[in-house]
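Margin note from the TA: students keep mixing up input and output lines. Inputs are the sequences; the output is the structure of the whole complex. Example:
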Amino acid sequence: MNLLQSYLELYELLKEDNSTKEERRNFALKEKIEQKRAYEQLFLWLQKHREKLTDRGIASRYLHIYKTGFGIISLLAFVFGFLAASVVLHYNGSEPVNVIYFLFLSFITPLLTMLFSLLAMMKRDFFLHISFTYILQKLFAKFSKKSIDEALLDKDVIRWIFIQKMQSSALLFALGMLASLLFSITTQDIAFAWSTTLDISAEQFHTFLAAIALPWSTLLPSAVPSLELIEQSHYFRLGGEISKEMLSHAATLGSWWQFLAMETLFYAIILRLFLYIFATIWLKKKLQKSMLQMPQAKALLEDMNQPIISTRAKELEIPLQVEDGITKSRKKEKHITYSALLGYTFAADELPLIAEVLEIKAKEYLGVAGKNSLEEDTKIIAKSAGNVAMVFKAWEVPTMDFIDFLEELSTHASSVTLYPLGYAKENFQVKQKDISIWQEKLKQQNYSNVEVLI
Amino acid sequence: MKHPSFCVVGHPNKGKSSIVASLALDDTVAISNIPGTTHYKRSYPLQVDGKVVYELFDTPGFQRARRVLAWLEQHEVSADKKHEVVRAFVDEHRDDPKFHDEIELLEPILDGAGIIYVVDASKPYSSEYEAEMEILRWCNQPSMALINHIENDDYSDEWKRALGYYFKLIRTYNPMQSSFKEQLHILESMAHLNEEWTESVKESIVLFKQYHEQMIQKSALLISELIQESVTHIEKTTLHKEDVTEADKSALEQKYKQRLRDMETASYKKIEAVWNYQHLQKESFLLPFEEIDLFSEEAASIFGLTKKELLFSATTSGAITGAGVDMIFAGHTAFLGALIGGVVGATGAYFGFDELSEVKILGQKLGQRYLQMGPMKNRNFPYILLSRALLYTTKLMQRSHAKRDILSLHDGALKEQLLDEKLKKSLEKYHKKFRKAEKLSYDEQKEYQRLLEESLKRGCYGYSSIDSL
């Protein structure tokens, strides 16, 4: 019962729980949860969060119906047992009580129902649809104002609850019978006999009863009916009256009660008790398993047990805002003569060849940046005048070093014409992708006397 | 001891952000071919339960390397004091917008970060890089060079010769095509930069493996939930009229298909989140229904119990009540009570089902007539869904977080490899249960997930165990 309560409470808490993975993991680290078994971890979490449960929650409402329902069934089982035994043991003083009726109720029926229970234990869905808990769950889902998951209880758990409750009800039924037997023999002087239409001799009946009484025959021999007693208490309805021999042994006819009490105690109570304990253990196992299978419980366990590993940046990247400038681009022209041709990160001796390929001329060829020092570049800029051309490696992206140089150059030269170049092995042909990058960068600049030839 | 940190630096547009995105498994890193996309340094810590194991910095590229170097070279100091000059430069120019990018990239290095200098070996070497490498040498921090190949040309040899002058450790790494194994190798290299960092970086390699394992487990769980939910899904529509029209059936079918598609899309979104994808663009990948037979069923229920369930319930309940009467009469009734009880219960339920379904309790109708679609009985459906999900996840696992192109999801061969006949056979018993709308037990669920995890690992790494890497 406690485990079922824990199950339902865990179900309710997890349904409502909106803790983050971080909070769950912190809880696990604080409670050193990793050394514990999975369902122990769940219990610990439940214990620490139980105060959040309310009387109006699913767990308490369901448990209330569950307890009331099975409480009534248990009470009825005991009353039924008492009444059934009272009817069977009813003695009117004129006819003896036939022990076979009682044997049927306290020996045959328990064995049959125990067989029935064993079948139910082995076969799934055997009892599912008549299960009180199943109907309860369906009704609860139908009429509950709060919607409830159909899978509040797993089908297998419902089966085992029903099996366990069947054993406890049967146990109470048997206790009711035993109570009734003891009450009857205390308050009445009952004459027991045995009677059957079947052709069974006293010897055969004795063998049968001795087999039944085998478990206690050595411990309690007085609770084993003797052949003599069986012979003396053989009752024949024919004639409508009790035989004289029975009457002569009237005092001994009552001694059957010890056998009946022991037989009820052993077959209807002790064996049932074993079955009840077995069913309880299995129910516990099923509940534990079902608890671990609850999707929210699985998520909780995962969150608690898995370290939070993250590799990502915490802050969002701030995009760079750029504004357009006025630097223009236009198509290449040939046969132009410049006052100087500067090669940005080119050596001076590479430039005449480049000029030839570009079909332009220059009075001076100068390498800038690259191996040059800043001072050297400053000197070159200082003496730049007129129309200056500058070639640069288009495959390299523009840096601010380039922009600084260009800015300074544009203040000295009357105009600066930029020639982006591709690889020499490709005849300096520029890839469109590279040109786009340069155009994108240069159009942000505000040089009225600078233009890019593409 | 402070955790190890590594600063990814270099010329603009050499793939620094791509390298960081692939190593940090983060697709939020802004990557473009426009220089200066990265304007601020950004930290990517590997954290375990809030504790930083190592930290990676993405930085803007060098913009005014020559000017910085010129400033440094004005200060004639011995080698052991050079890093102090760099610090002096940073302190002096902290508020100078001209050197914003240099300050951003130098600060973490001066705080103790190892240097990962990135170059693009698909472009020829040029002397203008020497100023950058010289500045890094002034910082006097453990360093390595990473050769990237943005395009197909290869100038690795000239780059290696030049880099060898400045760096002891040179590795080649293409963030666009890097596998998890290659990412781990780069981390291994980083571990050797500084003896003090070795332990932490090695720990981070173990954690990376654990992280991948976690992500695979989560993906397998999400896939198994998707298959289970989709196959067992029942779409119902309450019937208000006597006859079911074609329009009713068609509307339900559309709803059913849409629901299955929504489930798949939602599941893929979750898998993307598991693999740290926030901006993934992919091809249209809608679940096809052309080759799948769908069917619908007309039924009714009372308390949510179907006629069959109610019939069984009423029969057995009646029989038990009758048996109680038999017991009270001590068997005199020869179990006639049980028999009568069972028959009465069954008859009542059978003939009374329709009438009962019209009864109202607490204003609610006791029973409902409905049209139902699902659970999916088509045997192929779970495999179609599964192979798609496995392919999708494997594609995510294989994809570098540096990629910004559209994810292609058409790979028949990989699909076949991920869901081979052996795996299909192993999964059939579970799918059988799904088709009957049955849930898997805890152990079955675990086994189902394990099979999917193995398939994902085989598809991505070629091994069924991550430790083989």
